[in-house]
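Render this sequence as a predicted structure.
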Amino acid sequence: MSRWSAKTTDINIDHRRVPNQLVWFRRSWKEIPESSSDWQPGDIVFWDMDKDSWGDHIGIISDKTENGKPFVIHNFPSPGYVAEENVLNRWKIIGHFRVRE
């Protein structure tokens, strides 16, 4: 909780925090090895944007590609936009997940 300067959990938003989502995905979805380049539309990717070993950002792999590299649909709350961009390798990838079959 110290990461957010909080004394207690906030039941209204804690389920939306990326570190909490990462735990859920590890328990519920198939984790793809980090060395894999097998990206499929609908896969979930987690990044450590500021290299502090915490999950900071999450995206969904799109069906759109550029030069064979998949686009990612992601949201930046500040300044506030949702984008479909070629940003897969912009930050350190710390998780890659796919729905279990």
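Summary. The mean pLDDT is 85. The two ends are 34 Å apart (CA to CA).
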